[in-house]
Amino acid sequence: MNTDKAFLSPPCSILLLAGGRGQRMGGRDKGLVHWRERPLIAYVHEVVRPLSDDLIISCNRNQDHYRHYADHLVEDQEPGYPGPLAGVLAGLRQARHNAVLILACDAPRIDRALLEALVGTAGSPAKPAMVRQDGQWQPMFSLIPKTLLSALENAWQQGERSLLRALLSQDLQALECDTCDPRLSNFNSPDLLGC
Length: 195
Description:
alpha/beta, 7-stranded mixed sheet, single chain
């Protein structure tokens, strides 16, 4: 059983995004693709499970496979895989804590130090924070205060589908990371699985 001493401070909900179409994986569900004999979601789960008592997975298929990795499952409110912002909105609605750490299901090399740094960058009370590498924002490594839910819902209703663009107007804080930081590797195509 987890102890409070292991949790992130301040406490955060954690949302793993696994609801995509998997186009670069030939339509396969990326979180369930195996790397080194385990599904990618298992590596991310192993790192984040001790850090929160509110672990959410956004998935639009294969719920039976994802269920034992999460406290809650959510899915997009609209059909057709409309993108990560839809999953983030569903996760923010479900989250129990005031801030939600957003992570991709296909980043098996993340570590606690990276996540603690991201939470620290957000500050307290939390502002939105996101990893930035060589000037490029990385939306799949973000922290979003739950207070931004209505602003993000408004952006969605106005036709915005980019999580990054929706956050750029919200005093977004940057966690600067090296361009070659291996913790940020997304295994989003079959050729990367040989790494």
